[in-house]
Amino acid sequence: MAGVLSIDLHPIFRSDRDIDNTLRKAIFRALSQNLESLEIIPGKGSGALRRRVLAKLAQPGLKNLYRRVEVDPGNEGRIIVHF
After folding, report:
1. What pTM does this model have?
2. Which end of the chain has less Cβ packing within 10 Å, N or C?
3. What DSSP designation does 26 have?
């Protein structure tokens, strides 16, 4: 792979503001470094954090920055953002 940035959201799962800031920073960092993808790890759990992350990524301001998003078919606790 040309490059993958990975972030773990477990430590900040209670704060929507921290999740939003972390996602934005990670996306801009991956873009500035010309990385192929961003790996977001919300964990398996009940799926609430995964749904929150997917909702944030679907916002128009962020959606224009990447090509596609997928939940890893082999691991529901991982979201991959492709640039």
Report:
1. 0.88
2. N
3. H
